[in-house]
Design a protein that fits this description.
With about 170 residues, the chain is of the alpha+beta class. Helix content is about 50%, strand content about 15%. The N and C termini lie far apart (about 45 Å). Belongs to the histidine acid phosphatase family.
Length: about 170
């Protein structure tokens, strides 16, 4: 049974752990997060909130974690969450990324490579090239046969996010 579980984990992780795949699957949500971070830092949120909450499947969390380079090659348990905190210290805004994968323990800090401490500007510079801003951009990238397989999944995520923002 252990071998079957390990093969299942490897198969599921392989859906997200290549750069082009993680960018296509997690890049649109990452773009949304970065836009919200920038709006908070600039004070331009159209609907100022103390918190934004997204609810999703573990695959969406995995794709976001791989797109951000903070995944640990483990499956995401049910009821897990990724929390991005934005706080101000002096004139700079900083970001911390937390991961909660156990409801009986507090979330732990995910280190963003090359971004400690992580200002909003460093975060945008670190991930700016990894975002997918539009369905059209996604389709251009998907023209290559190597990425065509995952484009259907991305299209579903994109349309779901568009629908939930209405």
């Amino acid at each position: 049974m252990e071998i079957i579980n390990e093969l299942s984990r490897i198969r599921r992780i392989s859906e997200f752990n290549e750069t082009i795949i993680s960018n296509l699957r997690g890049g649109y949500l990452l773009n949304n997060w970065l836009n919200n971070v920038l709006n908070v830092a600039n004070g331009t949120m159209t609907k100022p909130n103390r918190m934004l909450l997204y609810s999703s499947h573990e695959g969406t969390l995995l794709s976001l974690m791989y797109a951000m380079g903070v995944a640990n090659d483990r499956l995401v348990p049910f009821a897990s969450s990724i929390i991005m905190e934005i706080f101000k210290d002096g004139s700079d805004h900083y970001v911390e990324l937390l991961y909660r994968n156990d409801t009986t323990a507090p979330p732990y800090l995910l280190e963003i490579e090359g971004c400690q401490p992580c200002t909003v500007q460093k975060l945008l510079k670190r991930y700016g090239s990894m975002v997918v801003e539009s369905y059209g951009q996604q389709q251009v990238v998907c023209c290559s046969t190597a990425t065509r397989v995952i484009c259907t999944a991305f299209s579903i995520i994109y349309l779901h996010l568009q629908f939930t923002q209405l």
